[in-house]
Amino acid sequence: MASHPGPLTKVGTVVVPLLAVVLLALTWGRDLPGPVVVVVALFLAGAVLCAVHHAEVVAHKVGEPFGSLVLAVAVTVIEVALIVTLMADGGAKTSSLARDTVFAAVMITCNGIVGLALLVGAWRGGVAPFNTEGTVAAVATWTTLATLSLVLPTFTTGKPGPEFTGAQLAFAAVVSVVVYGLFVAMQTVRHREYFLPVTRDGEVLDEDDIAHPPTNGETYLSLGLLLVALVAVVGNTKGISPVIESGVEAAGLPQAFVGVVIALLVLLPETLAAYRSAVRDRTQISLNLAHGSAIASIGLTIPAIAVASVWMDGPLLLGLGATHMVMLLLTVVVSVLTVVAGRATLLQGGLHLVLFAAFVSLAISP
Predict the structure, then answer these.
(1) So where does this one cross the membrane (predicted)?
(2) Is 2 domain-assigned?
(3) Does any domain span residue 145?
(4) Is residue 244 assigned to a domain?
(5) Could you read off the pLDDT of 150-204 as tens digits, one per residue?
(6) Among 228, 99, 217, 103, CA closest to 169
(7) pTM score, two decimals?
(8) Is 328 inside a domain boundary?
């Protein structure tokens, strides 16, 4: 978890979301010139960072694993909102945006963030310890959700192409909500101890490592500012989305790379939070953040897209191609072999980072 910011940073985390909302009101529905796009992009990045900061303040108050859950859900709400807003006006060219963004989020979290956390933890202490029961459950959950939502559409025959029928999409949406709910219940109620950090000797740590947790007033203020920041992120991203798409096209990159850009933007602050936890020998918190985001990304995005598809025109392509399915399968195999031991070495961290690098390389040059 992040440390509390200094006075200037505290002021910034209050002012930036409010200014971002004002900027949103001034630019809504207008064609933006280049300099204005730069200003909007800066405030968008600031609003994302502020949203994550305020989520972390709330997280400090409620403790683990609730803290990781708050941050993961906050980040995922941003991601889902970005997908829906971009798809609402994008037409057929954004038919695969949900699939591309969700798959990118899974690769970034389960390979990029996990690999970084394991590498840092193992580098500092020889091995990076974590709780096997909770981590295995998380891997099983995102594997199930990814297979049902991103692999099955490629093989169903109700519609041509990698697409669900209406009934199949509704089933996938309901199952995603149910599975996500079961995982959250396990994580926060029935088996909370499975998701607490452990020492290198295997001792479970159930302590508040923050010397001065936020007061109730600070917590409620951060909760309100978190909502403001989320509104600013969603609205301003919709304003600059044409620039993102045209930039990807001008660079000669595949349209699917738009989803990668969105996922990278949204998950960067969470990556920093996971890195800070790994530095403090709290690898389990890093894994909670990574796997929790992957689960929330699928478990919340698919139902949201299913509802939005009622009024959106055009196809909704969810099924992965052969190359991405191979990447997903390899990620699942490596993840299972990594977590069964309850501790990881530099090798496991390096393998996940290699898979992440392969994903980025294939996204640029399929």
Answers:
(1) 12-29, 35-54, 66-87, 102-123, 135-155, 167-186, 219-236, 256-275, 287-311, 317-339, 346-364
(2) no
(3) yes
(4) yes
(5) 999 999 988 888 989 889 999 999 999 999 999 999 988 888 888 888 777 666 6
(6) 99
(7) 0.83
(8) yes
